[in-house]
Amino acid sequence: MHIHFLSWSAKAQTLSRLFLGLCSFRSPDLSPRLMAPPPDDIRRLRVGLLYDERMCLHTTPDGEIHPECPDRIRAIWNKLNSEGIPQRCIVLDAKKAKDKHIAHVHTLNHIKLIKNISSKEFDSRRQRIASKFNSIYLNQGSSEAAYLAAGSVIEVAEKVAKGDLNSGIAIVRPPGHHAEPDEAMGFCLFNNVAIAASFLLNEKPELGIRKILIVDWDVHHGNGTQKVFYDDPRVLFFSVHRFDSGSFYPAGDDGAYFMIGEGAGAGYNINIPWEHGQCGDADYFAVWDHVLIPIAEAYNPDIILVSAGFDAAIGDPLGGCCVTPYGYSVLLEKLMRFAQGKIVMALEGGYNLKSIANSVLACAKVLLHEEYVGSTQTPIFESTWHVIETVRHELKGYWPVLNVELPQSLLLSNSRPRPPEVIYSSSESDVENDEEVSTAHIINNEESAEDNLILPLSKLKIDEDNHEKLHASKQVQIVGSSTPSEACHDAQELAPNNTALCGFTWRSLLSGVEVWYATYGSNMWKPRFLCYIEGGKVDGMSTRCCGSLDKSSPKQTIWKVVPHRLLFGRSYTRTWGEGGVAFLNPERGTSDRAYLCIYRITLEQFNDVLFQENSLHQEDATLQGLESPLLDLGILDYVVKNKSLPLETLKNGWYSTVLFLGKEDELPILTMTCSASDVERFKSGKVPTSAPSEPYMNTLVNGLVEGKQLTKEEAIAYVNDAASRRDYKYI
Ligand SMILES: [Zn+2]
């Protein structure tokens, strides 16, 4: 049986423990805070709370494990109940959105699809339809849940806008902020917050809501919401999200700082694109203080809708950031002085059940003006100042309040360097000198983005065995601190285990995803390749491989010939001694032919091979210590779309670029090779090309012969030809 799995995962996270020592570093302006309002305020406060079990009906077909699971909202509801929060709030009934209200945001075709998708007539087609979208699953409960989620945000927003409530929280799913006018994506079917905003503006003018601030603090960019209001100055859309040079989901330029809106909406779209993971409370506070709050003051919104995803929360398995419940409480509290405190929170992402429950609890207490104590101790990243200055510069023409330089003293104080990537200095074959690797640079992704071949990751298959394993590996929650003093401690607890969150480890997730690994060098000989899986070495190798943690053999082996050039670069390798090693030119050439032996393995194993190929098993870095995948589902999605991606985490390795070579049986064919800049250096002669040593040559020949591709003589001629060609223009 095959089941579908969806794309989504944190980009390779970094070794957070390396700088956890900085936890004791206290930012002077971030001190513990108490909120104790006058008693009569409490009496007057009316905070709405909406939860409906029917939104749990949307779940994966056949019960596959998925981060966006019904337990997310149950965990929040249970936590709030355990603290008696509903008793202090106005509990509202869920309502289904009306089509005419949804139609302010979505196309009629899209509405029709979501309306009918759960009906019987779609039973046989539902899976196929879901697989056409990016990261979407659908079942018999999806339609109802989608209508309830959108309608419930409308319900809370209307009551807050009217003044029946001071503020409110809609605990809804499926989430909404990725859903575009004509497309479901990223676990989102209808764009709940955009629909509620459009409802207030277009359906209820009598409520006097003319200007809406949408604050999207989900760790992913709110691409759908941005698109809906991109030219509309009635909505100021603010999104703070991981961007990682455009590689973090949903990937591309939409979440970039320069996407500021257009037409009448120019200046009303604000993106804060984090350059890397691990951003925490202090980074978010700085963005609030130096971008969002000054602009909100100038904009003076009539109501604030928060796209409240909690996947930037500490311990989230997808987000890789470190916002504590206290951090969220401060972010929310800073918004409460606008719009007479009219704030509507709508749940978006957030996949660590304990973290999201604690974070929503913290926010509920803020809305209720109850005490929430905390402190933040980690300093701001230097890159955060860079992002803030870039965004301020971009927007200062629209928001004069930003047209002042931030004081140098602020920029220089209390910042920390960007988080370290996995550090390694050599590849399978050792580098000749450090200076050389330091010159390696990342190729322009646009250069390698040829045709836009999209393989939705929902098509990736998990077989039954792996599915069982996935279930078996489900672990107990970690994380999330409800008290601030625990936060730093939690971070230390978390970091080494950051992969074991929310019931998932990256290994358990990726062990269920199959890919084809295309080999063109010594790995074409299966016994040599198996060293990377089972560990050990074959004749001619001077060092042993550690093997993958999953030692199961490839499920299948196939051969292909591709229009890429095989070349032999470097002149010495640690594993093989004197002589060059094989690379595949990432560029295709019309007259080029390279043989590929392609193994069907899991994405977990592919990561372990990638790790070993780049000799990440240096010093104390071990496979067991590989806290994050080098290539997760999100990165895979990007590679598949863009054909090639140099991995920042592997930039000093020899096989740092992952290439997508097409599909076989619906699964992506991937290989790893040198970067485009290395090819340039081969061409210029800065790095020698060199014939392979005899033992290395033998492995290629053995592979080609045993794979029945060539005779021994033909194989020798093929390798010699590739090694001897000096026509670099064809490299
Ligand atoms: Zn998210």
TrEMBL record:
<dbReference type="GO" id="GO:0050793">
    <property type="term" value="P:regulation of developmental process"/>
</dbReference>
<keyword id="KW-0678">Repressor</keyword>
<keyword id="KW-0156">Chromatin regulator</keyword>
<dbReference type="Pfam" id="PF00850">
    <property type="entry name" value="Hist_deacetyl"/>
</dbReference>
<dbReference type="GO" id="GO:0005737">
    <property type="term" value="C:cytoplasm"/>
</dbReference>
<keyword id="KW-0804">Transcription</keyword>
<keyword id="KW-0378">Hydrolase</keyword>
<keyword id="KW-0862">Zinc</keyword>
<keyword id="KW-0479">Metal-binding</keyword>
<dbReference type="GO" id="GO:0141221">
    <property type="term" value="F:histone deacetylase activity, hydrolytic mechanism"/>
</dbReference>
<dbReference type="InterPro" id="IPR023801">
    <property type="entry name" value="His_deacetylse_dom"/>
</dbReference>
<comment type="similarity">
    <text>Belongs to the histone deacetylase family. HD type 2 subfamily.</text>
</comment>
<dbReference type="GO" id="GO:0046872">
    <property type="term" value="F:metal ion binding"/>
</dbReference>
<dbReference type="GO" id="GO:0040029">
    <property type="term" value="P:epigenetic regulation of gene expression"/>
</dbReference>
<feature type="domain" description="Histone deacetylase">
    <location>
        <begin position="66"/>
        <end position="366"/>
    </location>
</feature>
<dbReference type="InterPro" id="IPR000286">
    <property type="entry name" value="HDACs"/>
</dbReference>
<keyword id="KW-0539">Nucleus</keyword>
<protein>
    <recommendedName>
        <fullName>histone deacetylase</fullName>
        <ecNumber>3.5.1.98</ecNumber>
    </recommendedName>
</protein>
<keyword id="KW-0805">Transcription regulation</keyword>
<dbReference type="GO" id="GO:0000118">
    <property type="term" value="C:histone deacetylase complex"/>
</dbReference>
<dbReference type="InterPro" id="IPR037138">
    <property type="entry name" value="His_deacetylse_dom_sf"/>
</dbReference>
<dbReference type="InterPro" id="IPR023696">
    <property type="entry name" value="Ureohydrolase_dom_sf"/>
</dbReference>
